[in-house]
Amino acid sequence: MVATRAGRQHSPRKLKFNEKLTGKGLSTDALLKKLKNLHTELAELDQELVDVNSLSVARKELINTSILLHKDRGVKAYAACCLSDILRLYAPDAPYTHTELRDIFQFFIKQLTSGLQSADCAYYNEYFHLLDTLSTVQSVVLVCDLPQADALMLEIFRAFFGIVRRDLPKKIEIFMTDILVTLIEESQSFPSEVLESIMAQFMDKNTRMDQPAYRLAVDVCNKTAGRLQRHICQYFSDIIISNSEQEELQEVRSAHDLIKKLNHSCPTVLHNVIPQLEEELKVELVPLRVMATQVLGEMFADVNGVDLVKKYPSTWQIWLSRKNDRTPAVRLALVEVTKGLISKPPEIHKAIEEALQAKLLDPDEKVRAAVCKVYSLLDYETVVHHVSEELLRSLAGRGADKKHSVRSEALHSLGRLYGLAYPEIENNDPRAMSHFSWIPQEILHLLKLGVEVRTLAEKVLVEHILPLPSPPTQSLSKNIEIDESAWVDRLLTTMRYLDESAVSGLLAVSGLKIVHPSLYDKYVQNCIEYNGGVIDANRDAIITKLNTTIQRIARQSHDPQKVSEDLHTFAKLNERRLYKLLSTCMDPQVDLKALIKATNEFLKRLGEHSSAIVSTMAYILRRTSLRIVNQSSVPPLIRRIQKARRDDEDEDMDGSCDLRHAQTVLTYMSKHCPAVYKPHVAELTKAIADEKNSRLVEVCLQALAAIAMWDAKLAPSDKRTTERLMRFVRQSNHRQAKFAARLLACSKNATELCGEVVDSITNDMTQADADQLLAHIAVLAEFASSAPDAFEQQSDVNTAFLLKEVLMVPISLESNREEEEDEWVSDENMTPQLRSKLLSIKIYRNRCLAHASSESALDIATPVLKMLITLLEHEGSFQDDTQDDPRVKSRLRLAAATALLQLASVPAYASAIVPNFVLLALVVQDSCFKVRLAFVQKVVSALQTQKVPYRYNVLPFLTALDPDPEVIKTARAYVTFAIRTLPTAVRLEHFELMFIRLLHLLAHHPDFATTHEALIDIARYIELYLELVSSRDNVSLLYFLAMKAKTVRDADSTAHSENLYVVSELAQGLIKARAHAQSWNLDSYPGKLKLPSDILRPLPNAEVANKIVKTSYLPVETTTWLVDRAQKNVTKARATAVERKPAPKRKAEPKANGHSKSAHPFSDLVHCRRR
């Protein structure tokens, strides 16, 4: 106990109180009065200046059972105060036996427990005095010397933790803290039960510092940390040792949770526990290693984490090393707790960033997904200040991960981060632009990687990158206000940071290209007819139509089975309001406000009826509704162009970029979805009057022409507009002239007006300068297609002029080293003369298409086809010995090939092109990258819309050796999507049976040779086909077709027949190798097939057929190579292919510094046909 000191006194004071506290006949009031007097006097006595002998009578009477067990609470409260003062005055000795002291302290505890309920309770001052005395004098230390000290300590601790919860003044809590601290510091032994009572205060999941019991425990632990460290370490050791063999490990998990809480509030008590956790990181028991990793990670992330890292550097390093733990669960645990460490000081967050960067490539998909998810949980400030751009770009790379969960988390994180950063990007914050502006571009680049990735990318785009505006309230009333300009500004701001490919991808997913009525419109109509299954007539036909439509939609989706089931469920709901809302969302003429309202109501109602299908129908909404741009975008986009500076004035970079992209979006609308312009015809007509703004006039003319072609009734017909159009078609701006001509062809007096223009142009062309001539040719190209009768008035004169004075006149371009190396001239660098040549080819093509159904179609087309074939034969020239600019020749080759491809959409013309099919197909392998890419894109587009015969499906496989990944990715994406979505019968006809045509094409390849090296390259084409088309179900058919190639002869020549037999044997060997690698059974094909008679002929007799079958046409070296491949995995075997000679001519896409990529490995063979 502590002996208190007071001021100096000359003699000890004696207790004056001499009344009896016990005895018969003493009333409660009298006793209470006496105790009050005694308490008052005792409280005034000083410990150092008191005659303790004078206290003996009162000391003895106060512990009489008649007082300690008295029924009156006041008597006991005052008695407790008096006893506490007695102990104070006798300090440091106690005037009682051990038994009496035990009874006294138990008496104290009972009084406080039962009486101290609140600050307003009876006798509060007496209880306050009792605690004050025990705290100040520390008389409670006497408990430590008692025989039953442990039990009494436990009783005190439990009582105090219970009492402190009663909303008492802070001073009471301080007294209790001092008392408990004294007991811990002075006790000779520390009972485990007492420690458990302290730890119990940390067990509640919702503990906070505003909870008194928790606060008391924290204060006690912090003040006695030195004494508690060893005991707490032993406490946790006992729990872990006793429970580590159990499967559940619940007690161990609870102990680790307790460690986290102790670390947060009183970390110093864990001095001996941290090394113990460090050892847990090394144990064999995986659950314990996982728990230790989680706990230490959260401790390092806590407010005291930095100090923890500094105090225990070895623990930190060993914890970091768990990123390479052999067990994925441990690595996952480490990743999941790194969120709080990213914003720590550099020495910590750099180590964490390195770890997360490495774990993005972890072999376990759950770990990779967890890393991606971490960044979706961060706020903007944390990412912009503590996460490097390099790591964010690595995160974007996981968008192409093989596993769906990883892709989903990566793209969601990127989208969310961009959404958080967009306000700062809009404000041109340099750090935000550097860190986040590139995200949309990376997401859009993923669209080509397959339908699953595309679906995720589309979801992120419409939910995070370019979301629909949120109305100020959740009300569905008609009075909601939507800021359409801000919505459009976000689109243009995002497009500033997109490259050409990403812009194309964005527009492709905008929904503008959907042709209405679409497959989805048909589905809604089928649902209405289905009527929830209640059908009065044509039941089977209606059900069949619904099932067919659902199958077609499902085959295009990322999860065909679920989408099919959910679409059937939606049809069975038979909710007409949902059908109406879905139709509204899909309507190309819906405005932004109506779209938001319909979308919100649709999803809300659908959730009430069937929440399980909401995700699928949300996917349908994303694919079919105009959520990125729609008719509400038109006025803001036009205003953006109207407000732009005039052509001769400089724009700031962002303004110029926004202007260009506004024009791009409007142009795309005009090409693919003119219906969006219907409400804006008057505004567009008014805009073309601003002739000083050439961009505005061009865009609005194109839009008016598009809407007029969509619905001729909407074409403006007033006299002033007609006069303005007649002026535009005669001016030298070829873009304005082109669209004015197109609009003029849709006007009321089209025949008369167009004829007048044609006559005028015919008379003026011979004297026109280059720009004026280009504009005239652009007008003629439009009239050849949309006003053929007017064009035919002067067709002989004009076509002859174009051939002699335009197409056959050589031209020269300005020197440009980069373009000369690439054999290409960009659009912006094309001269009017070159544009005139390209438009001239377009005129011939348009004229042929315009007369495709007439009797004179072939008469008109034959010379045109001959001209186009000549351009391909002479590599873009009309004569073999001309020295034309290679850049011009590349442009003309592409124009000729594209024209032939478009003419092939007409059956009569397609037949005429067949003899030169190989020549046309080989444009896929042109020496110029731009020609190859553009032509492959044209081919893919024509095949997707089924505009050309399906024999053209062999062309994508000729990209197998292309040196640039973009070309082959385009081809692969088309084939993969088609194989996935086409019905079985269509897939058989369009791809599987086309195998024989691919073999025939390879046999006719001008670079075909029977040398081993050449055949290895030929094998690459076949391997690409097998990779994309072959399956367990069709491998027997493909092998059968390969064998059948040796039972026929080529329709052209014997030499080509032998080439075909070589390719046949090569294909058979490759199919065997693939079947072996995939463990497919190569059974005999049971069916009968008729081979295409236009390219193959039957053999003359059985003797010749038998001889061919028995003859081996492959070189021995190639046969050996095939045998080796049949014994190895096909994928691994590709890496052992024979080294090829470098190719000197074919060029890939130019790099940023102007140098080309590595040459095509097959280009030396490809160019044999052009020597």
UniProtKB/TrEMBL annotation:
GO terms for biological process: cell division; DNA repair; mitotic sister chromatid cohesion. Residues 28-55 form a coiled coil. It holds the Pfam family PDS5. Keywords: Cell cycle, Cell division, Coiled coil, Mitosis, Nucleus. The keyword Nucleotide-binding does not apply. Residues 1137-1152 have a biased composition (Basic and acidic residues). It is found in: Nucleus. GO terms for cellular component: chromatin; nucleus. Residues 1132-1171 are annotated as: Disordered. The keyword Membrane does not apply. InterPro entries: ARM-like (IPR011989), ARM-type_fold (IPR016024), Pds5 (IPR039776). This is ARM repeat-containing protein. It comes from Neolentinus lepideus HHB14362 ss-1.
